[in-house]
Amino acid sequence: MVSHVSKSFQRRGESSEVVNDASLTVEANELVSIVGPSGCGKSTLLRIIAGLVSASSGTVTVGGTDSKDSLHELVLVFQEYERSLCPWRSAIGNVRLGLEGLRLSRAEREERADAALASVGLQEFAEHYPWELSGGMQQRLQIARALAFQPSILLMDEPFGALDALTRYDLEDELLRLWRARSGMSIVLVTHDIDEAIYLSDRVLVVSSRPASVLAEFTVDVPRPRDQVTSRNSSEFQRLRAEIVQLIGRTSNSAAGHGADHR
Ligand SMILES: Nc1ncnc2c1ncn2[C@@H]1O[C@H](COP(=O)(O)OP(=O)(O)OP(=O)(O)O)[C@@H](O)[C@H]1O
Ligand SMILES: [Mg+2]
Fold it and tell me: Is pLDDT above 90 for 117?
C-alpha cells in the first residue's frame, strides 16, 4: 500500500528529510501499529497515507489504485482531539459534519450519524458540545465521526495519547470491539506506547528515528479476543515487548550518537 515513500520539507531554503523510503502494506481486516521515537515522522507518514500531505517520492495505493482516487476509503483520527472537533457544533453535529461531502440523502446522513454516535455509547450526549464532554468522550466522538464515514481504512494518530491509563484501556477495548463489528475495515494506528501497539495489533511496525523508515515488523501471536490482564501477561506479549523495546533503544541511541536530531 505504501511503497518507497519519502518526504522532505523545505524551510528557509533548507531541505530536511522526515520520511525516508518507507514501505508498508496493510491487508483488509488487519490492525497494524506503527511505533517509533518521538518526532521521527510518524504523523507525517500517516498524513501522507491520508492524502493530506503529498509525498516527495513514492506511491500510496489502496486496493491497487492511487490513494488520491480513493480518499473516500480513508479517514484520519488526529492526535489532538481538542483541536479536531468543531467547537460550535454539538456532538451529533460534529458527526454529521464529516458526512457533508458525501452524496447521501439527509435521512441517510442522519441515520448513519446516529448509528455511529450510538456505537461509541454517546447517544445521550448528542446535543452536548465538545467542551461539555470529557477527554475520553471527545476522543470517542472523533472515532464516531470517522466510523460514520464507513472507511475501509481507519488511520489513527496517537488516538489515546492524551488520556489517563484507565480511560485508555477502555477505549482500546472499545476500538477492538468496533473493529470486529465492521468486517473488512483495516486500522493503521500510530502510537509511542509499545504495550498498546502489541495489545491492539496483528502486526507492529517499528520505525527508525528521523527520517522515518520501517526498521522491523513483528507479528503478534497473542490470541483474540484479548483482554487487558491475560493478554498483557502472556509470555508472547512479554517477549515481543522486550524485543521491541531493545530495538527502539538501539535506534534512538544511534540517532543521538550521530546528532541526527536537529531540533
Ligand atoms: N509541515 C511541515 N513543515 C516542516 N516541517 C515539518 C512539517 N510537518 C512536520 N515537520 C517536521 O517533521 C518532523 C516529524 O514530525 P512528525 O509530526 O511527523 O513526527 P512524529 O513522529 O509524529 O512526532 P510525535 O511522536 O511527537 O507525534 C518534525 O521534526 C517536524 O518538525
Ligand atoms: Mg505525531
Answer: yes
Residue-range domain boundaries for the chain: 2-257
Report if pTM > 0.85.
yes
Torsional sign, CA 218, 223, 226, 228: negative
CA 210 to ligand 1 center in whole angstroms: 9
DSSP 8-state class, residue 208: P
The atom number, within ligand 1, closest to the CA of 263 reads: 29
pLDDT digits 0-9 by tens, 155-208: 999 999 888 999 999 999 999 999 999 989 999 999 989 999 999 999 999 999
Of ligand 1's listed atoms, the one at least distance from the Cα of 45 is 18
Tell me which fold the domain 2-257 belongs to. Rossmann fold (3.40.50)
Cα gap 109→99, rounded to integer Å: 7
